[in-house]
Amino acid sequence: VGRVTQQSNRYTSRDIKIRVAEDHEVKVHVPSGTPITRDGRPISVHELTKDDVVRISGASDGDDFRADRITVIRTYDDSD
Question: What domains, with CATH codes, occur in the chain?
Answer without folding.
Answer: 2-74 (2.40.50)
